[in-house]
Design brief:
The protein has helices spanning about 1-10, 45-50, 65-80, 175-180, 190-195; strands at about 20-30, 35-45, 85-90, 95, 100-110, 110-125, 130-135, 140-145, 150-155, 160-165, 200-209. With about 210 residues, it is an alpha+beta fold. The termini are far apart.
């Protein structure tokens, strides 16, 4: 993602470097299969202020969706390197995604919000097994906090399907302090820290009877 590169030179040291308020929807098709994950990510003000520099092409003091579209494209194309910070499993099997669709950025209240849809490579039937969706950055460079009202939701799901949300555990003070001392130029964490940050996932479990 664009911010993962530019923040090295623009933000102070500390993990995490980007903060995202997120919401995710698990989308079902007309056959009752899971077909996509739809994301809404609202970025923090510091990241937004840097990312929008020079994007007001017509100088009217506003940022239209059209002016933001090149940045939206850079974001979704670059996210592939990080698996879109989106990890889906059915039982023990990892579920792959196709190219992002329906993506755009909005600017409101001094913050950017990215909207995009990740289609599954093939729709998945959820019956005897469950699907687990994790939204997070295992290296904790980006911190994802799900919205309080509806962190995860299902769209067009059969009535027999349920979704359970599990928030990430809280960091202990010592680990948080250690992470805060890591500069943005160090993307990779030490193994003992990675063991902790890899547990900081926002998880949704979807099951259908």
């Amino acid at each position: 993602m664009l911010g993962l590169v530019v923040l090295t030179a623009t933000q102070a040291s500390a993990h995490p470097h980007v903060f995202v308020e997120a919401r995710a929807e698990v989308v079902f098709d007309d056959q009752g299969r899971v077909s996509a994950v739809r994301h809404v990510w609202r970025f923090d003000e510091a990241f937004t202020a840097f990312a929008v520099q020079g994007l007001d092409a017509n100088g009217d003091g506003e940022l239209s969706r059209e002016e933001l579209q090149p940045l939206a494209q850079v974001n979704v194309e670059s996210l592939a390197e990080y698996d879109f910070f989106t990890f889906l499993h059915q039982g023990d099997d990892a579920v792959g995604f196709a190219e992002p669709q329906e993506y755009w950025l909005d600017f409101y209240g001094g913050r950017l919000t990215l909207f995009y849809t990740l289609p599954l490579q093939a729709p998945r039937i959820v019956d005897a097994t469950t699907l687990t969706l994790d939204v997070y950055d295992p290296t904790y460079f980006v911190a994802f906090e799900m919205t309080q009202d509806t962190p995860f939701a299902m769209v067009d799901a059969p009535a027999t399907c349920t979704l359970d949300f599990t928030p990430p555990p809280e960091l202990d003070p010592l680990t948080a302090t250690t992470l805060a001392g890591i500069p943005a130029s160090e993307r990779d964490l030490a193994p003992e820290l990675l063991e902790v940050t890899e547990t900081l996932s926002n998880s949704a479990t979807i099951g259908c009877r």
